[in-house]
User: Fold this.
Amino acid sequence: MARSTASDLLQLRCEAPPGVAAARIDTRVAGGEDASDATPAIAAAMARRFDPWPDAATIDTAGPLPAQSLDLA
Assistant:
């Protein structure tokens, strides 16, 4: 699609501090409708095993509003 619209393809990596990620997971689980089996422990384990992604721009998604992350992107 990027090629057909003469757009640049950008690599973005969304990142939030572990505490923010854990709180979001807990909120989704408490809502009872989260299809994911992720837990704060799983998220922390994945973060420890994360491979570097030097070509991606990191977007801090810790803020409360998705629009803020979109503006950063």
Remarks:
- The chain has a mean pLDDT of 85.
